[in-house]
Amino acid sequence: MKVASPAKINLFLHVTGRRKNGYHDLETVMACVDLCDDIYFDFQASDISVTCSHPRVPEDETNLAHRAATIFWKELARKRGVGRVPGGVAVAIDKQIPVGGGLGGGSSNAATVLKSLNHWFDKPFSRRDLMDMGLCLGADVPFFVQGGAALARGVGELLTPCTLKTPCRVLLASPGVAASTALVYKNINLALTTGHKSTNNALIIACEENRVLDISVDMHNDLEASACELYPEIQAFKTEMAGLLTQKVMMTGSGASFFVLFWEDGQAECAFDMLSRRWHNNPHKRIFLTSFI
């Protein structure tokens, strides 16, 4: 069985505070895009295993997809009132989403495993059940279980579905740098995260009132300054990309990937061709033409 596991972008991200346990509260709008990993499931396996085409992705029990399968099997046994559900699954991930790019690839893989296992076992769990399992794995996993676009609050687990004004295409670009989410959050200066709050608040109100969100307005990611300070190559990549495209370039998540929204037919394709020619000798820089799903 083959299932697509989509990436996401953060259209804005505002960090509102830091909790005593070290986690950060935030407000962000996330949207799934059609850049996907391909995940293959073999249910003839006798145990749980994970392999991945990317060398930097672990293939042991620390992999989020492996942890998702493990927690699903545990919860299924509990639901059936047995000690253990026999069988297993071999999960093979063909990685297309840049690793450490702020695109949620690992969280998406975990959510895809949860949903696929639930489908295979004739849906013993509700979507809410799967989202609760996902939260044990990571703050973004419930979003990927839900899919689409959503306003996320708390540490990212409090979700309100939303409708977006849809651009023609979304151009994604990765510098080939794997940014550490933990380090980027740790480095953030909370005193500098309030300057763009009015725009974010307008989008939040629109979401709460079930109105279409106008994402063509000026948006902001509070984590961008921290990521660029920690990784000068991320700042250099953004500067080059913005200079070439003369467009608003936004970082997604904790970095290191950037995106541009294009609102007129043909613009994104022209930008893609330009960057492809510019970076064709650099195997680390990757460019993708995507759309919301």
Automatic annotation (TrEMBL):
Top EC class, one word: transferase
The uppermost taxa in this organism's lineage are:
Bacteria, Pseudomonadati, Thermodesulfobacteriota, Desulfobacteria, Desulfobacterales
Q: Which reaction does it catalyse?
A: 4-CDP-2-C-methyl-D-erythritol + ATP = 4-CDP-2-C-methyl-D-erythritol 2-phosphate + ADP + H(+)
Question: What EC numbers are recorded for this enzyme?
Answer: 2.7.1.148
Q: Which domain of life is it from?
A: Bacteria
Q: Which Pfam families match?
A: GHMP_kinases_N
What are the binding positions for ATP in this chain? 98-108
Q: Which UniProt keywords apply?
A: ATP-binding, Isoprene biosynthesis, Kinase, Nucleotide-binding, Transferase
**So, what pathway does this thing act in?**
Isoprenoid biosynthesis; isopentenyl diphosphate biosynthesis via DXP pathway; isopentenyl diphosphate from 1-deoxy-D-xylulose 5-phosphate: step 3/6
The scientific name of the source species is Desulfocicer vacuolatum DSM 3385
Q: Which residues form the active site?
A: 8, 140
Supply the name of the protein.
Answer: 4-diphosphocytidyl-2-C-methyl-D-erythritol kinase
Protein function: Catalyzes the phosphorylation of the position 2 hydroxy group of 4-diphosphocytidyl-2C-methyl-D-erythritol.
The GHMP kinase N-terminal domain extends over 73-148
